[in-house]
Records
---
Amino acid sequence: QKEVEQNSGPLSVPEGAIASLNCTYSDRGSQSFFWYRQYSGKSPELIMSIYSNGDKEDGRFTAQLNKASQYVSLLIRDSQPSDSATYLCAVGGGNYQLIWGAGTKLIIKP
Amino acid sequence: SAVISQKPSRDICQRGTSLTIQCQVDSQVTMMFWYRQQPGQSLTLIATANQGSEATYESGFVIDKFPISRPNLTFSTLTVSNMSPEDSSIYLCSVVLAIVTDTQYFGPGTRLTVL
């Protein structure tokens, strides 16, 4: 069974620091990887997608993919209180479906 | 991306009744999915809504309980039938916009409480 693992947290990070969120997956054949942010009471919102090994940067966000280690991470630089949310890792599971992690709750402390 | 709307945004229902949730997209989409998210939990896929044919249900979900329609490429409905308090949850539709990607975009969700 295809699985995606995340530490549920909460992960507490001081404002202005780097928040590092991690995710591992079980299916070595996976080709697509996503990070979604979900504020309490809201629906998931796509932050980043990554398909190739290495880093992909978008503003304060950097996604890192290592297919050999079956590991994907999200770095948030200069963390702001508005970054406090649950971050969901998702991996392509075929037939356009995504396999979802349980989510990591991130708290940015002012 | 696309504009995805869901109706109703929330509802409180009595056990034994049914509720139909609508998902409308402002452009034609390749795939539509229905998820359930229980409090403090991650997303659970209920089914893939197939245009013009029966939905494809995931293990643990059946058509009699969660009938789904998708009459065209922009609209789908999910019905939660014969509700019990265990059906209290947030129901989300998501869409894939283009055939070359599996990126999903979500509607705002429907918060259902069953008394």
---
Amino acid sequence: DTAVSQTPKYLVTQMGNDKSIKCEQNLGHDTMYWYKQDSKKFLKIMFSYNNKELIINETVPNRFSPKSPDKAHLNLHINSLELGDSAVYFCASSQDQGAGETQYFGPGTRLLVL
Amino acid sequence: AQTVTQSQPEMSVQEAETVTLSCTYDTSESDYYLFWYKQPPSRQMILVIRQEAYKQQNATENRFSVNFQKAAKSFSLKISDSQLGDAAMYFCAYRSALNYGGATNKLIFGTGTLLAVQP
């Protein structure tokens, strides 16, 4: 019944490694997002996809590469992890790009880079 | 660029009492949406309430209501009859209703207010 799911929920890794976070939504939504929440709880958009097409890339380093194999999935791959990448990453989805559409968030993935 | 400010890092309320969380925003746009999200310790982001800027009537959802003052660019959240389950981080968020470069897609968040509910 989970609307927006993310795997894994926790990820601990070493600096320099490459890791992926998966996101899936079963709501039939067209638009998906990645947000980053830093240690001070500040939430900021990273990417947005609509029907598998990249809409927003919010000045995120090239080490971050989103991939949307289909409308229901938006995965986040991170190369050469750095200490500053430690954060909670949230996936979200909405029916479409409409401004009034509610964004439904996943449970978050807590990434810790050592 | 739009900004959202929550000036209260922490608030506390007694169970069954009423509390108001403040939010101000800065924008030159006339059409936009405002949201309050709740993040309990489980980390799950949950939509509490939303307001369309073109609607003068304040939104309400059960014990949650907003005081939307468009001219003052203020959007406060009132929680009535506070319950222990209301304890969480509350985020105010802005979303443009214009659509240039996908701008309508992103939520712009404030820094959050941590609400404690005392039994």
